[in-house]
Amino acid sequence: MSLGTVLTAIVTPFDADLRVDEEAFVALHAHLCAHGSDGIVAAGTTGEASTLSDSEHLRLVELAVANRPPGTTVLAGTGSNDTRHAVEMTQRATELGVDGILSVTPYYNRPNRRGMLAHFREVARATDKPIVLYNIPSRTATDMPNDLLAELAQVERIDYVKQANNANLALVDGLGLYAGNDEIFARTLDLGGEGGILVASHIVGDEMRAMVDEPDRRAEIDAALRPVYEGIAVTTNPIGVKAALNLLGHRVGGLRLPLVEADEHELAVVRAALERHGLLAAAR
Hints:
CATH topology: TIM Barrel
Helix content: 40-55%
Order of helices and strands: EHEHEHEHEHHEEHEHHHHH
Distance between the termini: 39 Å
Oligomer: single chain
Radius of gyration: 18 Å
CATH superfamily: Aldolase class I
Number of strands: 8
Number of domains: 1
């Protein structure tokens, strides 16, 4: 099955006490799928998975599956730097009925090549769903070069890669390619990739969808969206996109430490990007 082209790595809304706001999560999920997204990734990096308990994490997956609009997909982020934990979370997300698994390179302990191969083989044994590898060395401190990705593509159920190392962006035999950064979405589509696992699609999802549906306008749309990408990337993700969503009237709340809310300067940058693109005016 296709997992979709425009997939949004959905934020996790919190209430004033920084508890997961389930009602706001379901509402945002519906909004995304009504505005360009073919599906979502629940409890990924943008969803602040690193500060969710396992029960919170799996509850978000459960909510996403139960409330997924017809024809859309749900992927679950289940990665860990502890292979046993990654396997357990993958098994449990699979039991909850997800359409696919997003599994990040183990972080901090920096496994060598043999360790990464062994890790992902164990994860692949834990599910019957397609696995999207997630290469993001800016966060994990370990890069998966394309020759390693090609070797992993030989493992049953490892079917895709979310590439967040822009320098590595290329088609790899045996793997569908997803852009892991908004600014390489257009380039990924031009290469013949599957699409993107995106952040800006929270706020410009219809336009990112148009980049798929109207390839003749892709470069023009991408150029127009660059200031939005840059604005919400003013500081560590998901601080910027949560600030943007709150400005646009979506109830997503704050962030859990060690992430902190946008400061005055960062908020001004986000606000200016939204205003220049006409988004705040449209929200009033």
